[in-house]
Amino acid sequence: MPPVKALIFDVLGTTVDWRSSVVAEFEAMGQKHGVPSGTDWGKLAQQWRANFMKNIYHIALGGSGTLNVDTMHKEMLDELLLTPEWSHIGPLWDESTRKHLVHVWHCLKGWPDSVKGLYALKKQVIVVGLSNGNLSLLIDMAKNADLPWDALLSTEMFNTFKPNSKVYSETLRHLSLPPENCFMVACHMFDLRGAASVGIPTIYVRRPDENPGEQENVKSKKEGGEVDYVVDSFVEIVDIIAAHNA
């Protein structure tokens, strides 16, 4: 087997837990600005994320739209707060509050295993963050969550979004590596399928509440599935790479 020289990690959802941070800040801003108790902040967060992902797919498939995720998050939040379900919150959250909520995406926390796993893997291979987030967001997040990337790539640099195959082929070009010397690590099958389309082997990471209904059905190729490995933490990948490169 060719040696593994680089691991390419998805960031939002795979490396950091976006949901907990966003829900916590929704709750804080709700209390601060008098939003009625009992509001389902988890539902609002999930709808914000779902609308964002829908827009990402649209652009990845060739549609038009902003490539700056901060701008997109703001547009999606403004649109949600105009819908009947959330319009009672709209007048309570002014422009400053909404911009504050958008900035929360810059300050997400890593999953409990992320930092430990990345530091251990960094001793063996190149660890690369590859995200649909814009670069300033990713830099802030890395500093805030102590994510020790060797390289950090934003799809904004490639004028599209994952899972467009251009993202993965351009990442390989920037790393000066063939696909067989890399692995793509993600908790989303669309991301891993995009990487596999250019020949990059794949590792699926199960993350709580990410892609309900998907992770239960993901299997490794040994089990008749699509991906090379299925793990529950970055720490598990340390042993996989050590064995692979032995």
From TrEMBL:
The keyword Hydrolase applies. The keyword Hydrolase applies. Transmembrane segments: none annotated. Keywords: Hydrolase. Pfam families: Hydrolase. GO terms for molecular function: hydrolase activity, acting on acid halide bonds, in C-halide compounds; phosphatase activity. It comes from the Eukaryota. Belongs to the HAD-like hydrolase superfamily. S-2-haloalkanoic acid dehalogenase family. This is Haloacid dehalogenase.
